[in-house]
Fold this protein.
Amino acid sequence: MRDLGIKHLVTFYGATLAVAMAFLIARGHLETLIPAPRFMSWFGSIAGGLAVGGVMVLLSRLSTAKFAWAANLADEFRSILGGVERRGVFPIALFSALAEETLFRGLLQPSLGLWLTAAIFGVLHIGPTPRFAPWTVMAFGAGLLFGGLFAWSGNLVAPFLAHFTVNYLNLRYLVPNTRRALNMAQLRGFAGL
């Protein structure tokens, strides 16, 4: 899943984003994407999104350290993400957060409501094996939080920042730093270890 896999993901999320944006623009809801330039509105959205995303990442790390199911889930994701390099984390986190928030919160939530949109979001995060069931439940909870941020702020800035923060920091945590691992292996080889 090296560069070709990342290009496919970015293409998929880019197409999803384009379709969702086209529907929002056709409905006359451009302010959902780009809110009016009011300082307090933007400041609140940015602060709220980053705070919620940071707390979600903290809870994720604590769960991984404390619960076997969370540690097993992290190991499953590490095995799936084994071919992703660190430089691929940013575009994956950026495009997935933009596309999913535009589609789920911007397009679907105003029509379907918070709970149904979060349920669909959770169901679409079903993994390849039953060991991913906690991820589906966590995605439903994340959908409620992101949807709550959208309802609170009235735009996608806060839910996007929360979603991006979670995706970026968790992917950075799960994807091995191959350069550092290579340097350590070279150092061990040099030292005769």
